Amino acid sequence: MDGGYNVGDDGLGARGDSFRVGADDFELDGRPVRLLSGALHYFRVHEQQWGHRLAMLRAMGLNCVETYVPWNLHEPRPGELHDITALGRFLDAAHEAGLWAIVRPGPYICAEWDNGGLPYWLTAELGTRARTRDATYLAHVERWFARLLPQVVSRQHDRGGPVIMVQVENEYGSYGSDQVYLRHLADLLRAHGVTAELCTSDGPEDHMLTGGSVPGVLATVNFGSQARDGFAALRRHRPKGPLMCMEFWCGWFDHWGAEPVVRDPQDAADALREILDCGASVNIYMAHGGTNFAGWAGANRAGGALHDGRLQPDVTSYDYDAPIDEHGRPTEKFWLFRALLAAHSDTPLPAPPSPPAALAAPASARLTDWVPLDAVADALGTPETEHAVPPTFEDLDVDRGLVRYTLDLPGPREPYPLSVRGLRDQAVVYVDGVRAGLLTEDAPTLPEPVAGPARVTLWTESLGRVNYGPRVGESKGITGGVLHERQYAHGVRAVGLPLGAFDDAAAVRALTAGGTCRGRPGLYRGTLDVRGAGDATLELPGWRRGFVWLNGFCLGRYWAVGPQKGLYVPGPVLREGANEVWVLEVEGAPGEELEVRLG
User: Fold this and answer.
1) Helix, strand or coil for residue 249?
2) C-alpha to C-alpha distance for 313 and 295, rounded to whole angstroms
3) Which residue, among 278, 187, 284, 165, has the nearest Cα to 232 in the 3D structure?
């Protein structure tokens, strides 16, 4: 390692070593040490593949791994905890791989993750009071941290574990300036037993560093290039202390319907070299991105610095153009980064592990069982309820998935325009059972007027909650109302169809048994015969938009608008022989072919 200290083959030093933030450097037992970290989110990688991905980080020349913690994944309903020990298991795997660990528990994480990691029920209750000193919000955070932090505390470096640093909030200076809130979080972490070093991370701008840093807590900066300028901005606020780029953006994420974002590997390597030449520590974001399984991808809003414009939903893949791709394979960036990082190690870098096994032979299947979307909602969704005005997803307790709204327009009346106010995010509209159009935020009015009497059905879908900016926490579904000419329609019946409803595999099989495919929206089921199971890509030629499950594991959203063309299938999800496939098609399937392909 730089600074003349060899951290050893396991990268961690011995039990009892003291890791601390020194006056100029990070220190291990008083000797300078540089953090060479990589971001890898345990919740975006199949657990059986954690070991391989962590070994890839070591082979690239890293001595540390960083991960966020998504509150909404682990507490989907108030008080209902889901696999909270996953974080602990991941930290144990990091320790076994010889890596230190930086934990960023939020409570807000951004991460291009639905709602920035905040539970929808929390932001529905609090609105803009979230991420502030508001007493109700802080009570929720305190209750959450009391459950989560034991996973971290028992694995801290001073107890023989890998955790050397814990972050306070996340890029708070890009959102607010409530110093009382930030200090409370720092104190709360300490009160729950966090003895590891604390830090914050923000963009290298004055308003971000003043809004997001905490006196007495290490401040770090996030950027993708121009390291000297970024660190100069940090030094204006913090003349002393280690320099660290907590997020070196070596790639970027993609949005549905937009061109893919790629970064020239040499350009990224040159930017990394500049960070290292500054004598700074770094966390490569992302070292390995993984996948937004189960519809957890977030969304952004366009509009420059305000981030208040058109919705831009994130794709299912979180490949991020990272040095280790979505399948866990080294890219050109990997080898360039490895060459740079090897010069900062006192020992030869380990060889990369063998690549994950790939599917031995392609497979395809026609999906022969089908049930219409209405029947799916009636069988698996929430009980239908009637409301004066359309309820939001939050009102119906739906985090990810669909909501069906039904209303009856009175008559007789002449044709009038039908539009939706406050639509988030899309609605496929049927009038008397016939498709009448697709509405969006930008185009909320049907192309043809509607006469009364008529029954109107609107199938709305959340394309991901906003994860960054002032509109984090905004509601989904119809947040205003349905207008016929200038008159609101009332007496709206609603059914929620959360993606979690498909966790009941027996109910799904019973629902689809014996149905006949029609090439229409609905739930399709079939079987793929697999020989030589391994990592694969699932393609859905001609299918338009929806979700896919393989053996009950939700691979995520597909959408014909691209740029993503297929869905990553982790090898552990597949099995030899018959593999059950479910496709929930929202807009309408491709005629009579109804084929899926695994390759």
Assistant:
1) strand
2) 11
3) 278
Q: Which of 459, 490, 521 is the last residue of a domain?
A: 490
Looking up tokens 């814990």 gives 166
| Sign, CA torsion 32/100/149/121 | positive
Q: Is 332 helix (H, G, I), strand (E, B) or coil?
A: helix
Q: What is the pLDDT of residue 8?
A: 37
Which among 75, 44, 74, 76 has a CA at the least distance from the CA of 398?
A: 76
How far is Cα 346 from Cα 550, in angstroms, rounded to an integer?
45
CATH number at residue 78: 3.20.20.80
Task: Tell how far CA 333 is from the center of its chain.
Answer: 23
How far are the Cα atoms of 27, 377, 416, 593 from residue 349, in angstroms, in the given order?
22, 54, 70, 50
Q: List Cβ neighbours of 315 (8 Å cut-off, separation of 6 or more).
A: 253, 254, 255, 256, 292, 297, 557, 559, 563, 564
Beta strand segments in 16-174, E: 19-21, 26-28, 31-33, 36-40, 64-68, 100-104, 163-167
Tokens at 363, concatenated: 């497979």
- The CATH number of whichever domain residue 475 belongs to comes to 2.60.120.260
DSSP string, 542-599: T--EEEEEETTEEEEEEETT-S--EEEE-GGG--SEEEEEEEEESS---TTT-EEEE-
What is the span of the domain harbouring residue 197?
Answer: 2-291
pLDDT, residue 52, reads 98
| Residue 226 Cα distances to 218, 287, 569, angstroms | 21, 19, 37
Q: Residue 580 corresponds to which amino acid?
A: E
What's the one-letter identity of residue 549? Answer: W
Question: Residues 181, 188: contact at Cβ < 8 Å?
Answer: no
Q: How far is CA 579 from CA 79, 358, 364, 527, in A?
A: 35, 16, 11, 5
- Could you give the residue numbers annotated as active site? 171, 247
Residue after which a domain boundary falls, among 470, 490, 510 = 490
**Residue 343 within any structural domain of the chain:** no
Q: Is residue 334 part of a domain?
A: no
Neighbouring residues of 146: CB distance < 8 A, sequence distance ≥ 6:
192
Residues 461 and 522 in one domain: no
pLDDT for the residue numbered 12: 53
Report the distance separating Cα 6 and Cα 12, nearest Å: 10
Measured over the CA atoms of residue 482, residue 484, residue 486 and residue 492, the dihedral's sign is negative
Q: Is the pTM of this model over 0.90?
A: yes
Q: Residue 397: which of 37, 51, 76, 28 has the closest Cα?
A: 76
Amino acid identity of residue 295, one-letter, is G
State how far Cα 303 lies from the chain centre.
21
Joined tokens for residue 475: 């509601």
Q: What are phi and psi of 181, to 5 degrees?
A: -65, -50
Q: What residues in the chain have per-residue pLDDT under 70?
A: 1-17, 592
116 phi, psi to nearest 5 deg:
60, 25
